């Protein structure tokens, strides 16, 4: 058996059809896990599932799901359990960049939409997944991993990003609360505070932002997506069982610069 073998385990990942989510899903698939991708775009879901099926021995399903809708999450979690019988690791990765407005221009709708996806969406996903994990623990099979995609902006300041920063800071708070509350069931909760990675979201930003970031990051480069594969596998594996309630910057040193 290899050190990080996830054969027989199931990982659910929201927003797993592209960007950081797909990068993490690749690692999970390569490690042998069954993978459930939950995301909105059916075409991207199909492409992601086809790619992931070619990477490992586990099974892959891709389900249409909007994390802004509680009923959609409940249905997708139920479909995942029907397909695989269990969920061992849940990556709450789905998120949006925010409204991009300055503080004097904040609107209630823009603020609420960012919070609904980035914070409430993760909480609702955790609600449904933790119900399964707790029931499994009560039946003598404890354990589970909750891993949130947060951001370095949750602990740093960036212009025109107050709603996004606040949503991710709240996600860090959710992580710590979940870790404390669910520890009795041997369920851990951690957050990964990602720095600058080239994704579809960052591609839409002003090119000067990428240039500014590359100068500010101590390692002088954007994050590499291949490195996220092993990171995801570690947090989904038993080797991270004694790590909980932590918010880990994954940012090339940006948060200390």
Automatic annotation (TrEMBL):
Keywords in alphabetical order: Oxidoreductase
Domain Ketoreductase, chain residue ranges per copy: 9-199
Name of this protein: 3-oxoacyl-ACP reductase
Family in the record: Belongs to the short-chain dehydrogenases/reductases (SDR) family.
Highest taxon of source: Bacteria
PANTHER family assigned to the protein according to its UniProt record, in alphabetical order: 3-OXOACYL-[ACYL-CARRIER-PROTEIN] REDUCTASE, SHORT-CHAIN DEHYDROGENASES/REDUCTASES FAMILY MEMBER
InterPro entries, alphabetized: KR_dom (IPR057326), NAD(P)-bd_dom_sf (IPR036291), Sc_DH/Rdtase_CS (IPR020904), SDR_fam (IPR002347)
GO function term, MF aspect, one: oxidoreductase activity, acting on the CH-OH group of donors, NAD or NADP as acceptor
GO-annotated biological processes: fatty acid biosynthetic process
SUPFAM superfamilies per UniProt: NAD(P)-binding Rossmann-fold domains
